[in-house]
Specification:
Elements (H helix, E strand, L loop, with lengths): L2 H7 L8 H4 L8 E2 L5 E4 L2 E5 L12 H14 L15 H13 L4 E5 L2 H12 L5 E5 L4 H9 L3 E5 L4 H18 L3 E6 L11 H6 L7 E5 L14 H4 L8 E5 L9 E5 L1 H8 L3 H4 L6 H16 L2 H19 L12 E6 L2 H14 L2 E2 L1 E3 L8 E6 L7 H19 L15
Parallel strand pairs: 3-12, 5-6, 5-7, 7-8, 8-9
Antiparallel strand pairs: 1-2, 2-3, 4-10, 9-10, 11-14, 13-14
Helix pairs in contact: 3-12, 4-12, 5-6, 13-15, 14-15
Amino acid sequence: MDLFDKIEKKAGPLGQYADDAYGYYMFPRLEGEIGPVMDFKGKTMLNWSLNNYLGLANHPEVRKADTEATEKFGLAYPMGARMMSGNSVYHEQLDRELAAFEQKEDAVLLNYGYQGMVSAIDALVDRHDVIVYDAESHACIVDGVRLHMGKRFVYEHNNMESLEKQLQRATKLTAETGGAILVITEGVFGMTGAQGRLADIIKLKSTYSFRLFVDDAHGFGTLGKTGAGTGEEQNCQDGIDIYFGTFAKSMALIGGFVAADKKVIKFLRYNLRSQIYAKSVPMPIVWGALKRLDLIRKHPEYKTNLWTIVNALQSGLKAVGFDLGRTNSCVTPVMMHGSVGESTAVVHDLRENYGIFCSVVVYPVIPKGMILLRLIPTAVHTLEQVERTIKAFVEIREKLANGTYSNVGRIVSMAD
């Protein structure tokens, strides 16, 4: 069989909807200034779908720093991989400041968070080692685990009994191979909003020998007294052996970092294939990250404002009977019952008749027959926008219950 014929026949769980969904449900084009109100297909939308937790995307000091860095250095500088010719004093400064912010000895920048996580897992373990990871881990963790040449065991999501069972299996196996154990989880799970049980995992170190690697993409900047993340929130930052953060959420940027003991970061600097064989982070990104980190440190009110909106939104939705699952973070998942066709009708109604834009998640990401509308609050949303959204969701739920959306087909087609 020809390869291209083969891939055409297996579109994938999301690709099967491509013809009907492109440009509306998938790959939508939001336009205008980044913020709670943006334009979509010629209409003004109240937007709950941007990773801009602290509202830094259009902060005047951020825009100024980004502009000045681009004018001074351009997008090409520094040229080459960081190990060969792409290092600078500013890259090194950002390494140090991120390490200090996360209360770790050292840190290393990543030009992309996703591939950086994949590469870090690949670098840390060999075929003798065992990986134990949470069943609901992000795709970047799953892809990193897939590269592992040795054994990997998955434990039930946030289930400590299941984790301990897998640690027992891993301990027995590594006694035979002479390998080590790496446990991987998330600080905040991006779909459900549930915090990983980091403190409970760390307690297991008294019984089992392992190192803990935490992906804290949604916790960085949003949780903890200083914004250092989920470990700080749970008073167990010291127990996290390897901390991963991304710039894509609280910093409204691109890139990321890994923070750990000096010996670990030294090893990663010389073994992270995604960094050794790829261009260094461009200077405007580095300058922009330094400015954003400075604002996070100096302005705790940004996080306070964020949580004012989070608490109002989540408590308001719960008060009128919505199921938000296990969230104890900013991520706000609203669960409803319905088919894929009904889910697209709900989203279409929200956008066209209520002017509200949010992301929808359906099977196979979540169980069949469920609809998840995921809201991402930010520090620059308003309480009035929260009230408007809750009112709209109540009306949408009533329509869903009385069958208003039940006569739609496989998907409400909005293809251009």
